[in-house]
């Protein structure tokens, strides 16, 4: 699996490797000295940070470390991790990429689970390959991840046995290595393209003089082709050993019992006497600023990065922790300013961020990152550095610091409230970071205590002082990645350096911290009242308000600090003429980014600092609605925002310009990318070139109209009595009733009835095959979509399609990936739509070597034919049943799931019991129902197939059969 290592870099990751000898330690760049730590730590600045007291930890005699934490969410589940302190940076020259290959081999077979039996066993327990069974490899580590049921002692114990097998009993045979190399090479192929080519230019500069520049986890194609089982075994023997391993178990378990099981399972592992030391590789510093500019014709938009290499920071003592709090405040305040710039009428970037922290094991980065139009790269760079320079000269304001501290305190309050609802996956991730990097893994109470102790003493001066760390010339790299367009010239290095100098010499004004005062809603509406209350069962109540608004309520105890809100009303853009649709297709995004009432979006963000609340309008083809969430304490604020969204959508020219500017950036060079040409061809083909299904283009932005957009939202939200609201989460109906009666009961209504219209999107008849020739890399993509009308929509048909998709995906994965080594992954989705007409789709897709497309497509249709003739294997049907049962167990304790249930109740007037019964239909899947579904829905006389091939094989356009 590929794991991004720096959000601002195009990283590729996965793997382990072998290094017999360590090179001499390179010089590490020095970090500017930390600000003095005032005596707010009670004289305990050097006190080590405690590990979460709920964690039971220990070290076996062989050196293996373990961490076990009892946690009840989700119930009857446990997260298991095998942490190996070895990654691709340890590879020898002839092993580049073998770490990643070794990770794959671990899933291919062990002594106890030969060949594909391991994944098949895990899937038989209801776990899915990918979401629940996975691994990642980066430069410095490899981590294997499992989620296993704990309601079966045997299943949980076998999960631990799987970790033990990976730790010491992976089988590495020449036959399996040869087969798996094809999969890894396909993953490498998938990672190529514009991003890969840019990385090839930038990484040697960013990591110059370092082993990291030449040990990308995905590896080297030539080395992978020549890989042998012997060299894989060398790495496995050298670095998969107990003194470099940790086991993490978090979940619905007995910690004492699990600790004993780990001792029993892993105690026999040995570290070889001649095991090489685990070397550490640094990134050398440099006195000057380095500039690297990469251009590529297929890059969709410009990317600007400023990276400052620093000595890695540790957070091991209370003084370190205080420093981390100061850094987090700095990051929050600077990013708030960048966010405000992003919301201007002519934003210098579509997205931007700044961070002091993050990087690799032996180098840390202070960084800026922005996405901008290719022609606006220097403007984006100037804007990023100008804000840091503004902070350096004038500092932050007291208001900014107060808001940032309020957000920190709000986060602490939420963590305290949710301490018994935190998912095990979050704890497991924190313990992995603790083991590998010494990252703090404090208990909730310790974090709350320590943060509240140091936070009041943090001053503006010490936060402001951090700005200099973003402006240092030493150890700095400015990296631009820009689309290569016809007639366009990329900036030169001299122009980049001139921009840096111009920022330093610029005449700047202090930041204007404009804060608007007053209540959100100056004059509250006249409240309505609940005129009818109905018990719908399963803890769901429906209120009908005096203005006709309906409210579905589902109080839960799944999250202690969360209330989810949604609303739905029939109508949508289907009621607009085509011209109105074109002028208003960004209406919800524009209004959603315009703030509320008298407050612009930046003003609203400042006003709501320290609160957990968000509300956004939605406008789709068949309905208008609301999506929101809040903490229970902030629910009234959320309902006030709902009221303002529906009664007073803002006309804000800055928000209009900002929204379209951001979309324009992402469309800047998108048409030149192979992926967009491929997806556009597929969508246009499937929808019959319908005028409402056209690809998004710059011309569509030119047609957008602000006044028409605001008018469209006002018209669609003007009539509240056809809205049904849903509230799910931590509330008591009696306590929220006055709020609902005021802010929802006070909504206006109109004497109208809206009925969504069928805009008549017709699917193509027969078999349609198209080939798109785009891109310079030897990459191919295939998408096959079966489609058709249903006689009538039914939950049974939907369940049949979902089961068919799951079984077909597993079947094709085993054929195309495991047997043929022809692809990295296969994705199959199946579903049924109720409206506007009952219809179904089954869509399957995969990437491949262009030379093997015909072979793999033939294999797909052969598998489909076999399913029709013989039906599926019983084990695949059992996997569907068990997966449905396990998924429903978890879903029933998730607010988001219940919100979706209430959405179905609201839209179609369905009983709650009927919606909840749908997963049981999957549990009723049989070989016969899947075989019949394959025959019914996978009609080989009616489908669309689109293939993407490199430009060199065609004329750069598209062909159709």
UniProtKB/TrEMBL annotation:
Signal peptide, first to last residue: 1-22
Segments forming domain Peptidase M16 C-terminal: 227-407, 713-881
Keywords: Hydrolase, Metal-binding, Metalloprotease, Protease, Signal, Zinc
Domain Peptidase M16 N-terminal intervals: 68-188
Chain segments annotated as transmembrane: none
Presence of keyword Ion transport: no
Necessary cofactors: Zn(2+)
Region of interest (Disordered), residue spans: 19-51
Family from the record: Belongs to the peptidase M16 family.
Xref: PANTHER family: NARDILYSIN, ZINC PROTEASE PQQL-LIKE
Name of protein: Insulinase family protein
Organism listed in the record: Rubrivirga litoralis
